[in-house]
Structures are given as C-alpha cells and as structure tokens.
Amino acid sequence: MPLKLDSNDRKIMLAAGILVVLLVSGASILAKGQGSKAELPTTFSTASEGAEAAYLLLQESGFKSERWERSLSDLPDPSGKTLILASPMAAPTPGERESLGRFLLGGGRLIATGMFAGVYLPRDSSIPDFLGTMTWKRMRALSPSAITRAAPEITIAPEASWQADSSAQPLYGDESNVRVVKFRFGKGEVIWWASATPLTNAGLREPGNLEFFLASIGDGPTEILWD
Fold it and tell me: Which of 42, 43, 78, 151 could bridge 211 with an S-S bond, Cβ 3.0-4.6 Å?
C-alpha cells in the first residue's frame, strides 16, 4: 500500500523523484556514449526512452510496484491495482483482451500508452499519428480533473490522437487533436496517452510530466503492475 503523504511529504517525494531521474538520465548518457540503441519504455532500461526512473520512483515513494512478466490472460484480482501498458508493439490475443476487460469491469485501472495501445482497450477511438512521433510537443489541459489540476501542461511525442468520443473525457491536447483521455469501464478506469513520453527517463524531466504521471497513478491504495 502507498504511504499517505501530506503536502510537505509530497514535495520531498517529488524532489527525491527528480534526483532519481537525474541519476538514471546520467546513466543513459553514459550508455549512449557506449553506442547503445534507443529502447522501448521498459523498466529495465536506463536509456532515454526507458522507464527505469519511473519504476524506481514509485518504489521509493512507497507504492508496491512490480513487473508483470506473465501473460495478460493471467491478470490477478483487480482490486486496488493499476496496470501500466507501456507502448505495446504486438496485437493482443482474444484471451488477453477478455482478461483486460474483466480487469476493468472488476475495478482495475489501466494506463495504456502509445500508437497501438488502443487495440487493447474495450473502446478504441485512437488513430496512429506517424508524423507526430518525430517531435515532442507541449499539450495543454482540455478539461478540469484531478490529473489536469496537478499538471496544467505536459510534454509528449504524439504517436496517436483520440477521435471525438462522448464516452471519453479529453484531458490534454493541442489546437486540433486530443492526446490524453480517460473513461470509465465497469468499476474500472482507462487512461490513454498518445505516447509513453511522460514516464520515460528523459520525459520525466519535462515540466509537468512527473506530476502528470503521479496523478495518473492516483492517491488511493494502489499496486502497480508494469507490463
């Protein structure tokens, strides 16, 4: 279970998180100097596109955070759990989609990121944006929520956009596209990001991204599963 934090504790946690990010980013620079290639947002990677800093930050903040290395078809009881599906590259099997649906219906939270993450969702209005992957962009809040209050703006490489969908609340976007949404499904909740940028080792350093990531996780008792 996470620690219950007051405002001062949260400031200390954020300062510690920034330190973790800087340390991992330093390791990333060294790794790049040794000729390493860009990687997916895996929690094992210290490269700029990896996600080890975010994974360590949650552990240091008192969350129970673990790598889910089994099939999505074997997801556990969803009570008090958040699943992070970071930029999946392969399509889900029918059994995996059914398991994710049960996970959400039972009260789980899903943070799904990236160009192809939409195919895992029970409702999908995402469209790939192949040109958007080339540049990081600032996105402004589009509607009031606990998440947008924590981070009025974020930085993201928009790999996809979310089309008009009355069942989803738009959270962030630009002049013409929605890049982050959330919606309820059963007792659970889906938060879709156009890319994993905000939780990557390099992306966490951008203004608003750390606050956005923590707000997406939420304040309640949460066990985080990283897929």
Answer: 151
